[in-house]
């Protein structure tokens, strides 16, 4: 991995509540990530996990940590989208978010 502008390897993951400064075209942008744990109803198999994983990975501002039948854990940029936006994307594919914790 090549180091980013701050000297750290690029492609790393932020810890919950931590921020990173990214430099692009001479301007600094602060990226905040927040940990979100979801309980999800309607998932029954590995295919459901794959569908959920693909959906969450398409959302800009979401970094999926882990998904399994009935649950997911992710980091999200709350300046780009809300918990409700994430829940709506999950419900659009036929599952229901029945609980969240941060």
Question: What does this 3D model show about the protein?
Answer:
- This protein has 102 residues and is α+β, with helices and mostly antiparallel strands.
- The protein has a domain at 33-101: Alpha-Beta Plaits, CATH 3.30.70.100.
- 23% of the residues lie in helices and 38% in strands.
- The chain has 2 helices and 6 strands.
- The strands form 2 sheets. It has a 4-stranded antiparallel beta sheet, covered by helices on one side. It has a two-stranded antiparallel ribbon with strand order 1-2.
- The protein starts with 18 loop residues before the first strand and ends with a strand.
- 16% of the residues are buried.
- Mean pLDDT is 81; it is low at 1-16 and 18-28.
Give the tags:
single chain; 102 residues; alpha+beta; Alpha-Beta Plaits; two-stranded antiparallel ribbon; 23% helix; globular; disordered N terminus
Shape: globular
Average pLDDT, rounded to a whole number, is 81
Q: Summarize the helix and strand pattern as letters.
A: EEEHEEHE
Low-confidence stretches: 1-16, 18-28
**CATH fold field value of one domain:** Alpha-Beta Plaits
Assigned CATH architecture of one domain: 2-Layer Sandwich
Largest sheet: 4 strands, antiparallel
In whole angstroms, the N-to-C terminal distance is 30 Å
- Give the class from helix and strand content and strand pairing: alpha+beta
- How much of the polypeptide forms β-strand, as a percent range? 35-45%
Helical residue percent band:
10-25%
Question: With helices defined by DSSP (H or I, 4 residues minimum), what is the helix count?
Answer: 2
Rg:
15 Å
Q: Got a strand count?
A: 6
Widest sheet, order of strands = 4-5-3-6
CATH class of one domain, anyone?
A: Alpha Beta
């Amino acid at each position: 991995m090549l180091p980013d502008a701050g000297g750290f390897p690029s492609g790393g993951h932020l810890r919950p509540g931590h921020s990173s400064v990214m430099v692009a075209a001479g301007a600094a942008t602060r990226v905040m990530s927040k940990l979100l744990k979801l309980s999800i109803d309607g998932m029954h198999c590995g295919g459901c996990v794959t569908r959920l994983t693909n959906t969450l990975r398409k959302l800009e501002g979401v970094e999926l940590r882990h998904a399994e039948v009935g649950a997911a854990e992710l980091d999200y940029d709350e300046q780009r989208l809300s918990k409700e936006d994430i829940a709506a994307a999950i419900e659009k594919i036929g599952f229901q978010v029945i609980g969240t914790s941060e």
